[in-house]
Specification:
This protein is α/β, with parallel strands linked by helices. Helix 1 packs antiparallel against helix 11, helix 13 runs parallel beside helix 16 and helix 14 crosses helix 15. The longest helix has 24 residues. Among the domains are: 188 residues, Rossmann fold, CATH 3.40.50; 88 residues. The strands form three sheets. Strands 1-9-2-3-8-7-6 form a seven-stranded mixed beta sheet, with helices on both faces. Strands 4-5 form a two-stranded antiparallel ribbon. A two-stranded antiparallel ribbon has the order 10-11. The protein has 16 helices and eleven strands. The two termini are 29 Å apart. The protein is rod-shaped. About 11% of the residues have low confidence.
Length: 433
């Protein structure tokens, strides 16, 4: 009579939680948080031009400039502080003076850059004007590059002030111009003459700040640029001044004469006067009209983040890589107890969730013991084993081949079924390996 076996029990379906996606999400989340945190900290550390302390000659804060103003007075230079562009232009009349523009994004550069707006012989020092601020002027310059942080470089030119100062922290913005009479610090400091005024553009505010003026040659450079005349008109603006309203026709431009200083609080008046200077199109360097290459279309921070992301992907690929080729047997450097070896293999299978492979090892050992006990050939089929043992072929096949566990509970049930089959056929109660 054919014996009846108890096949492994299929566990109740349970929602399987696949957490492999965490291996991809967690590294990218950490990377994203690092990048965002870096950007936030960098933005917080940048001084705000609308802060009343920023480069103010009466502020003792870290971002203020009262130390620079004190050094200028020690050199015998008169410092005149003005809070509007109109007042600053009025203060320039008289003895030769230097106009110090600390916040070009907030000041009315349209008036300052107009040909003849300032008296002849005036020197203008502008601190780190952005591309947007330069676009409102008639100055033939444009931003040629930008750094993530201010760098220290040598003068690299023959300008007396730069040579005397030596290396300084001015390389944040770099500028290009076809009319420059001097280009120093890798383009971060340029000088050119425009409308009778000598214009100096500095690429960073660091040399003028209280907390940076003592570093490198910052102090010597800042004092040297502003002490070239006996007076400094310090334009201390911290609120956006009214910009000119656009003209209603292409040929209608500003109608006031260069010597007249219009009120910045009133809208500009347009006229159809036939002044060739007013109607002539504004000339720009040839390089400005050409389309920007891809390398200049995005800020350096974008490319730095992209490179960092690629490195993270490469590290993730290396960490998740599989060894190529078949495993190579190597002699153990020392004898390992069988129990420890078994536990180590079991933990590896458990960690890899290799349930089918684990069950196949048990089934192979069971078939070897059953075949040897029944006296069958080593390669005996499941049908031959079932016939010789007197069991149903379907039950034997279910236990030794067809059942595939989907969780640990089903694996334990299948292992018990294999152990019971060996016990019933061979009568052996010990190790089934």
């Amino acid at each position: 009579m054919t014996a009846t076996l108890q096949p492994p029990v299929k566990a109740a379906p349970k929602a399987r939680r696949d957490r492999r996606w965490l291996r991809v999400v967690i590294p990218f989340t950490v990377l994203f948080l690092l990048v965002v945190g870096t950007l936030i900290v960098h933005a917080i550390e940048q001084p705000d031009p609308e802060d009343a302390d920023f480069l103010s000659p009466v502020s003792a804060a870290d971002i203020g400039s009262d130390q620079l103003a004190g050094r200028l007075r020690d050199r015998g230079v008169v410092v005149v502080r003005e809070t509007t562009t109109v007042a600053a232009l009025s203060a320039l009349r008289g003895t030769p003076a230097t106009l110090f523009v600390t916040t070009p994004e907030l000041a009315d550069l349209v008036q300052l850059s107009r040909s003849g707006a300032v008296p002849g012989g005036t020197r203008i020092v502008v601190v780190a004007p952005s591309a947007a601020a330069i676009a409102t002027t008639d100055w033939p310059i444009h931003v040629g590059g930008e750094r993530w942080t201010t760098g220290v470089t040598g003068p690299g030119c023959a300008d007396p002030v730069a040579v005397a100062a030596g290396p300084a922290a001015v390389t944040r913005l770099r500028y290009d111009t076809p009319v420059s009479s001097a280009s120093c610090y890798d383009g971060a400091l340029i000088r050119f003459v425009w409308g009778g005024a000598a214009v100096t553009v500095v690429g960073a505010a660091d040399p003028f700040r209280n907390d940076r003026i003592g570093e490198h040659g910052n102090g010597a450079l800042a004092v040297g640029l502003l002490a070239e005349t006996p007076r400094v008109v310090w334009l201390d603006v911290h609120r956006k001044e009214v910009l000119p309203t656009p003209s209603s026709s292409p040929t209608a431009e500003r109608s006031r004469t260069p010597d007249a200083v219009p009120d910045s609080q009133e809208p500009r008046e347009s006229s159809s006067a036939g002044d060739p200077r007013d109607t002539a199109p504004r000339e720009r360097p040839q390089s400005q009209s050409a389309p920007n290459p891809l390398g200049q279309a995005f800020p350096p921070a974008f490319w730095a983040g992209l490179v960092l992301l690629l490195l993270a992907l490469l590290a993730l690929a290396i960490a998740a890589a599989r060894r190529l080729g078949a495993p190579v047997a190597e002699p153990l450097p020392s004898r390992v107890p069988a129990n420890e070896t078994m536990l180590g293999h079991a933990r590896l299978y458990q960690r890899a969730q290799a349930r089918d492979e684990s069950l196949d090892i048990l089934r192979a050992a069971a078939r070897r013991r059953i075949v040897a006990h029944l006296g069958l050939a080593p390669g005996a089929s499941l049908e031959e084993i079932a016939d010789s043992a007197g069991y149903d072929v379907a039950d034997v096949r279910e236990i030794l081949a067809d059942f595939h566990p989907e969780n640990d509970a089903e694996l334990v049930s299948a292992a018990h079924a294999v152990q019971n089959l060996v016990r019933e056929i061979t009568g052996f109660e010990g190790d089934q390996s």
